[in-house]
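User: Batch of two.

Assistant: Item 1 of 2:
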Amino acid sequence: MIRERLLGDRVLILRQYFAPDIAARAYAALHAETRWLQPGYANDTGGTTHLPRLTANYGERSYDYSRLVFTPEPWTPRLAELKTAAEHESGETFNAAILQLYRDGKDSVNWHSDDIPGVGTNPVIASLSFGGSRWFHLRHKVNAEDRHAVRLGAGDLLVMRGDLQHQYLHKVPREPDAAPRINITFRRIFDPPA
């Protein structure tokens, strides 16, 4: 396993945190076991826009995004094991997970930050990749020249922390000929202030 750091201590990448054979089995099982959704939401023109990927929400708390509200499924034994591994490496306790299935290179997620109030001031987010490799881009919110691109492969674990979500945007762009990929992001969701 190789450890890489990016942007100081804001990003930690653990290459092949899961060995290739374990990562391949995890991908196959997650693909089959997950209750995948492709929800739609009202767009600005009055129509419906569907997420350009499949998604699922698991855990004890809902993580709502893209104008969508999710009811989380309970942890499966497999997701609970993966959560424990992510908690061990990140030093955080997680209560929510979002799974994304990028079916091919046309599926993507656009520029965004995971900075909703429910994740707290400086959230720790652990991201596991299974299946095909994809580019993960980071861009500073003010200085657009401050950009970074990281190739994430099967079994890689990426941990984001500190003020990263307040200072940077990230995305997984479209990528021709990309193989299917599952990404799991674990996070801690807090109760809103009273």
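Item 2 of 2:
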Amino acid sequence: MLSVLANRTFRHLFAAQVIALVGTGLATVALGLLAWQLAGKNAGLVLGTALAIKMIAYVTLAPIAAALAERLPRRAFLVTLDLIRAGVVLFLPFVTEVWQIYVLIFFLQAASAGFTPAFQATIPDVLPEEKDYTNALSLLRLAEDLEQLLSPMLAAAFLTVVSFPVLFGGTVAGFVGSAFLVVTVTLPARTVSEPGHFWASTTKGIRIYLATPRLRGLMVMEMAVAAAGAMIYVNTVVLVQAGLGLGAPQVALAFAAFGAGSIVAAFLLPRILERIPDRPVMITGAGLMVAGVAITPLATGLAGLLLLWAVIGFGFSFTQTPIGRILNRSSREEDRPAVFAAQFALSHAAWLVTYPLAGWLGAAFSLTTAALGLAALGAVAMIAVIHLWPSHDPVEIVHDHPDLAPDHPHMREHAVGNRHALVIDGLHRRWPKL
């Protein structure tokens, strides 16, 4: 896995991502403390609203940002968004009203909605070999999991010597450091797509997504993942403190167990994906998550809950790490940023549904109802995935072009049987029946 760090460009991009992740983790802790300072016992409502604003920004703005990215230099686009994020966070320590938090969070997440898909779409251009790209995906997954474990500990250490607004300074430093590292590398030139209207560019990723069977399956799988994941992120604190009668340290331990399971899977996945195709690996992961949430009511002690959360974390990594491979396989190089942005938007749309659902079911009924309801939603999604994403899913497909003249360049290039790696584009607007 670590061999990909020999590539200087990826090494700098990976370091930029790690620094930005640490900064974001510090901001998460500081934002919670800021909400408490301004809203007291209503801090949860403030954070819940901020989370909803984050998801809305991701869902609505990611495709627009991808269309803009097609028209701008790649490195300058990434650096500018990093600096915008740093500038927005710089204002957070001076907030005096709750509405100001909401405004700043919207602009911060709007910049992230542009940066994250563009960054993700750059990695396969830097590491074109699938084995290297798979190792990079696992390494990036590992970095995200470690951030969730280490950032709260780092924040706690800082808070022993400084007040919480100083943590926002760490976030600013993280985004500035990320921008600096991106500046130090030369990114591969982006293949220019066909000129078109801005609206067509904005919707291109969604159109490719909906026309590709494996991507339709991936879209529905994200609902299964979000259903199970929402139980973890929304109800862990209630399960541990109200259900088991324990305290904040045990809440942190439960989240750590989830992260530890994901880390173990990230280490194992490169070798697994060399032997087993993405589809069964991802379906297995989603199945582990849904089954784990379904049996949550049976976990009556801390040890059982930790084991269960580790299994769900293991499944989470199995579903999320191979996504880049699927997107890479399903799009042309010039369309890749739009497809990554579509994935970013559609996956967060699923979380936008399941986050409030998890909270409402738990508050209005019970945690058992929440677990079983979310598991049922995940199970329905899993059945749909198996139907939408065919098990026979070849990359190269024999197909006809009755609309093209025999001397068309595409027909001459694939003269024998017209068999080639097929993706949705201007010449292939519909997926052929297999």
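The mean pLDDT is 84.
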